[in-house]
Amino acid sequence: MDQKGIGMTQEPLLKARGLVKRYGKVTALNNCDFDLMPGEILAVIGDNGAGKSSLIKALSGAVQPDEGEITLDGKPVRFASPLEARGHGIECVYQTLAMSPALSIADNMFMGRELRKPGIMGSVFRQLDRPAMEKFARDKLTELGLMTIQNINQAVETLSGGQRQGVAVARAAAFGSKVVILDEPTAALGVKESRRVLELIRDVRSRGIPIILISHNMPHVFEVADRIHIHRLGRRLCVIRPQDYSMSDAVAFMTGAKVPDEVAEAA
Amino acid sequence: MDQKGIGMTQEPLLKARGLVKRYGKVTALNNCDFDLMPGEILAVIGDNGAGKSSLIKALSGAVQPDEGEITLDGKPVRFASPLEARGHGIECVYQTLAMSPALSIADNMFMGRELRKPGIMGSVFRQLDRPAMEKFARDKLTELGLMTIQNINQAVETLSGGQRQGVAVARAAAFGSKVVILDEPTAALGVKESRRVLELIRDVRSRGIPIILISHNMPHVFEVADRIHIHRLGRRLCVIRPQDYSMSDAVAFMTGAKVPDEVAEAA
Amino acid sequence: ADSACIITKTDTNPFFVKMKEGATAKAQELGITLKSYAGKIDGDHEGQVAAVEACIADGAKGILITASDTKAIVDSVKSARDAGLLVIALDTPLDPVDAADATFATDNFKAGELIGQWAKATLGDAAAEAKIAMLDLGISQPSVDVLRDQGFLQGFGIELGDPEKWGDETDPRIVGHEVTSGNEEGGLTAMESLLAKDPGINLVYTINEPAAAGAYEALKAVGREKDVLIVSIDGGCPGVQNVKDGVIGATAQQYPLEMAAKGIEAIAAFAKDGTKPAPTEGKDFTDTGVTLVTDKPVEGIESIDSAKGAELCWG
Amino acid sequence: MSSDAKAAVSYEEGLKGASEKVAEFQEHKSALKRLQHWLHMTPSAVPMIVLVVALIVFGLLSPNFFKAVTLSTILQQIAIVGILGCAQSLVILTAGIDLSVGAIAVFSSVLMGQFTFRYGIPAPLAIAAGLALGTAMGFANGWLVAKVKLPPFIVTLGTWQIILAANYIYSANETIRSSEIAATAPALQFWGNSIQPGGVKVLYAVFLMVALVAILAYVLRHTAWGRHVYAVGDDPDAAELAGVRTKRILIQVYALGGLFCAIAGWVMIGRFGSVSPSASTGQLGNIQSITAVVIGGISLFGGRGSIVGMFFGALIVGVFEMGLKMVGTDPQWTFFLIGMLIILAVAVDQWIRKASA
Amino acid sequence: MSSDAKAAVSYEEGLKGASEKVAEFQEHKSALKRLQHWLHMTPSAVPMIVLVVALIVFGLLSPNFFKAVTLSTILQQIAIVGILGCAQSLVILTAGIDLSVGAIAVFSSVLMGQFTFRYGIPAPLAIAAGLALGTAMGFANGWLVAKVKLPPFIVTLGTWQIILAANYIYSANETIRSSEIAATAPALQFWGNSIQPGGVKVLYAVFLMVALVAILAYVLRHTAWGRHVYAVGDDPDAAELAGVRTKRILIQVYALGGLFCAIAGWVMIGRFGSVSPSASTGQLGNIQSITAVVIGGISLFGGRGSIVGMFFGALIVGVFEMGLKMVGTDPQWTFFLIGMLIILAVAVDQWIRKASA
Ligand SMILES: Nc1ncnc2c1ncn2[C@@H]1O[C@H](COP(=O)(O)OP(=O)(O)OP(=O)(O)O)[C@@H](O)[C@H]1O
Ligand SMILES: Nc1ncnc2c1ncn2[C@@H]1O[C@H](COP(=O)(O)OP(=O)(O)OP(=O)(O)O)[C@@H](O)[C@H]1O
Ligand SMILES: O[C@@H]1[C@H](O)[C@H](O)CO[C@H]1O
Ligand SMILES: [Mg+2]
Ligand SMILES: [Mg+2]
Predict the structure, then answer these.
(1) ipTM of this predicted complex?
(2) Counting ligands in written order, which one lies closest to the CA of residue A48?
(3) Of A242, B196, D217, E140, which alpha carbon lies 20 to 30 A from D188's?
């Protein structure tokens, strides 16, 4: 298990084996495996309800799996909460976003990592540096091409669906350190904004940080992913490289229209 | 104004002129026009925050515009609530879905139009016909290809993002009568499920009911739309036919990269 | 016209309602404007302080007060007197008594003692193995509650623990103390509970007559209303009627209308020429008296019958 | 369809032959799993378990506890709270709260009594008038909540004070004595009658409470109206958008709540014998009913829980109070321990749910 | 990148030259618009307006009302509710509720008094101990809410009873007299001192209340901790996912609330002179503070509102009560009218917001 010696790319950074998660009568994860290699963009695709969100929730501590184990950097981990996972450098944009509706964009972006004023106003009176936080927020949103946000002090609940998603993605990208997980980050985004998110994903990878990207957008997936994890009926069906298969194949695998060779053999 | 005599296709079924909606400092609709012709599929596209959702909320009574007027079938209307709009046959799937999280799928599909048991159990004791409602719900979801829903009595809050969206779309399509409005109905859907929604949209049109479709998915829009309303900065920039322009043009218009000819002339 | 205030503990208890009515009638007769205040619940000391402050700010000539907290109110009373108001304690003496300019009150300990003695005499030999239910007012144990309870126990010949509180007695004859809020509902549930604990109860002390009526309903429900003795305090007209009907064996009657009328007269006199009332000879307050009302008088304890009690009753 | 659009979705070719089966997985049918599932699906199960445990504990502590008369006394002591709890449950299911329940009950009982004795109206008519006026008070609450859009807490905090004050003013704080009522208007005391199977007295009021709980449980579970009540409490905006007449439902819920309170007022006369404007229910009825509702597992945020749970909640409180008294706890300590037990009951609920999640 | 993926997004060509300007629109700067905007952005504006109207009305109705002494009396009457309101506001901002505030205040004051007089501890030490114990009671509430995940209503309903009963039991219902305190432990009465500019007495307690409101307003608005309090009340799951230590914040909020209550207990000694375990704040403090909070425009669902609004809310109630007393209204009519005015105040708030939306 001394993966440090073997070299970066051999051993998965984040690995899961035999994950099971049941909700009452519903089986969301059915003995699911998972591997994320250092520095890669790993796409996760699958039907609605296949268990993709459940998988990344289990990885990021938002739910506790009933069975199975997870290792990070080769060491077994068990996150009791998303905060613990964050403590280990795992930053996640959930499908349901996780923002405080009544608070402003800047408040939300900096939640838990606020900037304080310089000097004694900050150190003694602990006053927030609002102008700095607002400027940072505005810059990040501009990077994403969200030019329609007119008032940076708007409450998040007043943003359009896509604007809200943009804020969440900007937050994860800006602060992620070890693993960034994005659950359908472009679902509500426009053409321009989606494109910027893809660029952002590449940026993050170029900082050496691996990314898990869940998406239903096949062209996007095939464009940016290094490897594609195909999820079906609560488990990993297979992992493919975008070079080796067509989008049509991938769609056939995930909907059960075709069975990938390895799996067909194994069965 | 006697549009009945002139024939179906001449006069818009649903029309708006000069709509303005401001939220405090934010202008969401800036003197916006809108026309929906009988029996057509009208796509509405635009950047995030362009005001698309605000527009259809104004049309369906979910918000009251500050200025401007709306006519339905040539008669001026003012809907104080979505219920009033529904009374006029306008069925809408909102971007935020509008479901009761703790209630079951069937409860949600039939909310406000429940089926009662036959005989005195229904007429006197007003007992719900759960088996019938559950069967109907299961059928509609199967039509949409949502095969991963294992338990039809699941609370909606326990559904995956895409499953939830599927339920909302199935509801509107099943019960819509005069106009069906869909705000990004495929945003969270998988490849298979999105395809089914497009088919459903065509089905609805073939029943003679016009549809307003908001979407960021250009291929889908160009595939199904009869006309495309391009929204920019809170107003209608232009309306194009998919035959006349390329997707690339449409994207250029909505992001301000190009200005359509009519508008350039008018300006 | 001169104005005066009357501040009662609550104005939901008929006792205070009648007291207020008496004061209002007298004030009208003497041409005084009377404003009335009350605590929100029994024991609402803060509400009474706020009322005193309002009276001072409003320039009243005098205050009649039935204090919720006899020690704590002393400060407020002092500031009123410093501001030149005449302050008269009604029903409940302040602690110390001379904190008020005058006091027209019932001796609540004595009221309890009277019914205790009567109960003991009535039970005769059976008193030695009596089973007693104590239906008190509330768990905060306001002073009337303690005085009446302890007075009763003393009168009955039971050894008191700390006379400043009830519930610390060790005499096995006491089945238990329960609180009633001084109304029928509380009296009923308290009695039900004590009966469940010991169905053999044969003597019931009650803080006031509504609680007694509730206790009677509970006894009636188990068919024991005839062989259990209920004693109470107040002497309101419904209570006296209940003595006549045999619901209550004996009650100690007090005289709120008289307290109120005397209080208003004193304020009128003070407003006219600054004279202050003098206390009853030999006492540090004007005792408006308490009388035992029963249709089964016993030797050695002075009492009146229910017919006479009905003439004197207060509403 | 434009040709580039067609090209862009060419990968959908892969859909041909996609599976059409609804996903299924083997279930592990161990007894424990099934117990857990049942606990999950039955919101009233946990309060029931707490209740049973409480009964056993007190049965062991006090020899007199497990007698029929004790248990029937507990039932009759919770009859009023149980009926108020029905009203409170309805309101809380819509994410509201009703602080005025006790006040409406007391004022209704006073109205019934005074109509009979002050104006000489025949008792059945006076009762009908009392029920109607109680409903009207509830309606006023509902109107303010639904139409003027005021927070329920504030509305009923206000009407609580208004109704209680009106009650004292109107009644002039006069009690109508039990014997008078028995003599001239026994209909007022109807629910105080009892049957005595095997010598154990069970009040009509107890049957009424059970019947009301059962009816309400049916209505909430099996009618459209009941589902709408849940939907309104769950997410009022969503319910409105989905076609529920949110305002109408709210008004109906509060008005029905008012009716239940007035019924409770009528039951109070039967139970206490007399009509007293200063009955403690006016002050404490709201807290008592809310306690029953919350111990019964109904969420104060609306939309979740069952009326049967409320019934067990009321029973739990009744059993605790009676049990502690029988064990011989001092009133101050009783108060103290009931505080502890309220917290404990809900903690146990929480713990079982967690263990079974 | 596979070539079909590239083809599928070829329409993105159209993005070249997309506009990079943040959208802007002309604003209509009419005075009315700006007033509306201000009302919208300032949650404490409406209670302030209601307050001013109330002042004017009572000034017209009662000649004695507009005297400095009356106004300073009102301020000193609301000092305790105002401080309890600070605690209540904090808790309600987290979507909780604290029914135990009054009980904590009374018990803390009793502890300070008894420590001094029963055990002979120097007053400043006794005060410190009382403050610490009040904080501990709040901490217990917070621990149960955050760690055991019990509903705040139930937790504080329980601790309310527990603390109040403990208070009576511990104190043996004994009041400590003002004169004794003044003689041996004047520090206990510190907040009852006053300055008298121009003969009008203003208690230290009033300054303390104002200072506490100001500090809390600053903390909530301008520190990270304050934003976290709002976030927890807004959507606790989202806050947790976003990196707020929700549990810690909750515990801190309740503990700080306990401290504020203990301070209120100390102020009670100053204001009333004596230490009384049966002070009605124990029973009524919760409803009074909640009333102030809600009239002040803080949402009971958490996450919205300002502490300054609570301050105006407390003042509104104080002005109504004093005003009605001076006009000479009967107590029951006063309760009746205060009930009306609670509803009216919030209705006006609602109406102004609607008109300006
Ligand atoms: N809290 C829950 N309780 C019960 N069932 C749940 C819960 N959460 C998820 N499920 C079920 O688990 C299955 C997997 O859900 P999940 O959200 O992981 O799907 P997904 O692959 O992310 O789908 P999508 O693409 O639509 O987001 C679904 O059938 C869903 O109904
Ligand atoms: N309640 C509100 N309060 C304030 N601003 C709002 C509110 N609702 C919408 N807005 C603003 O109005 C503008 C238009 O929003 P809208 O939701 O209509 O956009 P959209 O075109 O639907 O965007 P998307 O594609 O992201 O859904 C946005 O700038 C948004 O911030
Ligand atoms: O004397 C009065 C009455 O007896 C009342 O019943 C309770 O309060 C006391 O002070
Ligand atoms: Mg998902
Ligand atoms: Mg939108």
Answers:
(1) 0.85
(2) 1
(3) D217
